[in-house]
Amino acid sequence: LSFPNSGTSYTMKLIETATGHHVASNYGDHNLHKVTKLSEPFFDNEKVFNDMRQRGSIGPFIADAGGKKMTRTDSGYVITKTHCGGYCFKCAPKKYTLTDSEFILKCASGGWVYKDDFKSVEPITAKTVYDPKIIQRSVHLIRSPYDNMVSRYHLEHNHMERFDRQKDLAKYDRERAGFRKFCKDLNKQYDKEEQEFALAAKKNGNDKLKKALDIVKDVPCYEDLFKYINWHDHAFTATAKLKMPTLILHYNDYETDFDGTLETLLEFLEQPLASDFTKEFIEGKSYEEEFFTEDERKAVKKATKILASDELWKELSRYFS
Fold first, then answer.
1. Are 265 and 15 in contact (CB under 8 A)?
2. For 283, which DSSP code?
């Protein structure tokens, strides 16, 4: 499970190419078969799949991240992409704030594209959900909050280009200036709702959010930091409630110890390394010092220390040393 833009695509492709086996995704509607243009359920046993459909429990689906011919594994565990919930990019706190139960259900939710010959010959797109209890273990992926925030902006910029949003492209470039201008506008758009939400929490006896907001109110895209912290704390709670063995994986571990990180990941998934695997990791760019001022970085550290659980702070403290 991963907060968006924290290294998910690279990790999925790495496992696929390192093992020669398919990986999976909750989002079958984003991973269509190249020929049929339909979602391909990971469970290829027709009886098993039909039983799941009768229970209204569909998923996960094959995610062909690597682009070469793969096979389904018959042993170990299948890494499956899910962003759970509460990660919307441009939204108010009432939309990204979830209960623990809502978060867990989102972790087993997604979408698919299928054909129902009894109703329509045209493909149907629908939401899906499966029983979270079929999840046996978890890989919790974490990336630097600075890099994660900027990468989320870059994804938004990709959408501007893809959908030819010329007005936005004229206002926001892909570099530091565009990021900071976009975030300034985003902060302005949602600041009132963030303030009201923090004040309401304070009246109910929780003043942490208000304290943190007062510290980071001038930090670019500060509300995305709140989502990031909230999401990761939910992830820790979810895996604890499900009593699930969990591997914490930091994206920058690929850079500092690629071989050891891959070995640990494959051992956790109980998957062997393919004999023809050739490693490749292209070091990503760090945006911390280029996109954020020193005062902003100090503010991010203080706010994160206030809001994060002890368990999460233990993992994030490496990014504030």
1. yes
2. P
The one-letter amino acid at 321: S
Each residue of 264-296: pLDDT tens digit? 999 999 999 987 777 776 677 799 999 999 999
Mean pLDDT of 162-190: 97
What CA–CA distance (Å, rounded) separates 147 from 163?
24
In the chain, the largest separation of any two C-alpha atoms, in whole Å, equals: 62
| Cβ–Cβ under 8 Å, residues 254 and 146 | no
Which DSSP string corresponds to 297-313?
Answer: HHHHHHHHHHHS-HHHH
Angle (CA) 174-228-203 rounded to 5° is 125
Q: Could you tell me where the beta strands, DSSP code E, fall in 117-196?
A: 120-129, 138-142
CA angle 80, 86, 87 (to 5 degrees): 75
Closest CA to 9 of 64, 59, 78, 61: 64
User: Over the Cα atoms of the chain, what is R_g?
Assistant: 21
Alpha-carbon distance of 321 to 197, in angstroms, equals 31
